[in-house]
Amino acid sequence: MRACRREAVERTPVWLMRQAGRYLPEYRRVRAQVGFMELCKTPRLAADVMIATVERLGVDAAIIFSDLLPILEPMGMDLEFAAGEGPVIHNPLRGSTDVARCRELTDLDPVGFVMDCVAATRAGLDDGIPVIGFAGAPFTLAGYCIEGGTSRSWQHTRAFMLRHEAAWHELMGRLARTVSRYLCAQLDAGAQAVQLFDSWVGCLGPADYARYVLPHSRTALEAAAHRAPVIHFATGNPALLPLLAEAGGTVIGIDWRIDLLEAWRVVGPERSVQGNLDPTILLADRATVRQRTRALLDQVAGRPGHILNLGHGVLPETPVENVLELIATARGG
Ligand code: CP3
Prior knowledge:
By secondary structure, the chain is α/β, with parallel strands linked by helices. It is built from 14 helices and 9 strands. The chain has one domain (25-330): Alpha-Beta Barrel (TIM Barrel), CATH 3.20.20.210. The strands form 2 sheets. It has a 7-stranded parallel beta sheet with strand order 1-4-5-6-7-8-9. A two-stranded antiparallel sheet has the order 2-3. It is globular and about 55 Å long. Coproporphyrinogen III (CP3) is lined by residues 17-22, 31, 36, 63, 65-69, 86-87, 134, 150, 197, 199, 312-313.
């Protein structure tokens, strides 16, 4: 929390995106018994997964165990996590009139299980471990709604944006206002910070980001930012960083495609930064993990406002001992 506020800390805090995931045998054991959506919708179990992970890894923060996409179900999207395939939306939005099918949520009861998970995670951890809530950013959520799943190029989404500008802004507005309420509800439930994931927005160039995305990401972040630190995260295109900062964020999440200090210069000294180790270093040997982690910490040299993390999530193939090595190095071991 102090790093979010750019206050001095004894040591750089560390947590990892996807810290509780398929690379962990304990997680795979839970998943052998319960489907992914069922796990997300069982607050006690979802909280226990993250609490056990935080204790095992010794990280400094707990992101709640959930996903970007469950919020889309009560909005009208027919979501399924198909085994081995990732998320599928069976009724994707392809024409401008389809937008009517994706309704704004003013009442968040249908995703009350997320707020229950926040509260159970908070209750199960030491006071010194902040709980981070999260949501998908409007662009990344719109991408799933339009493509019907993950995509390499997000071409239906970008074509929709260009061909049906009014319908695009209508959809993005609905998503942004829903996400704004959702982040605030997670703060009400006990989250101390929230992260907005714009995982796939890097497929856009700066001019299109400014026109089609920025105002909506600002709407999504604004209310929560009055109350708590917000982490604004995107990947894939460092050229967007100044615009990402303009949209909002106490902390800007930085991926590995840019030097961290260069990124910090671009987003400005009034922001904190989170990142930015390449997740594939965790597929190398322990000496490499140690050396790359040290090099990043040496480079930042204790400047206040750095949260150590990967530039994107832990990959499922990652050996657990490499994750432990990263954290031990960050903790000065
Ligand atoms: O440990 C954590 O970081 C907390 C939990 C978390 C998950 N998803 C669990 C999950 C968080 C913060 C997310 C966010 C999320 N979900 C993102 C943004 C982060 C990113 O990677 O950019 C995105 C794009 C999604 C959508 C999503 N969820 C996809 C594309 C997939 C399938 C592919 C994959 O990499 O797993 C998921 C499934 C998912 N979300 C799993 C987990 C642990 C795996 C589900 C399983 O057990 O099979």
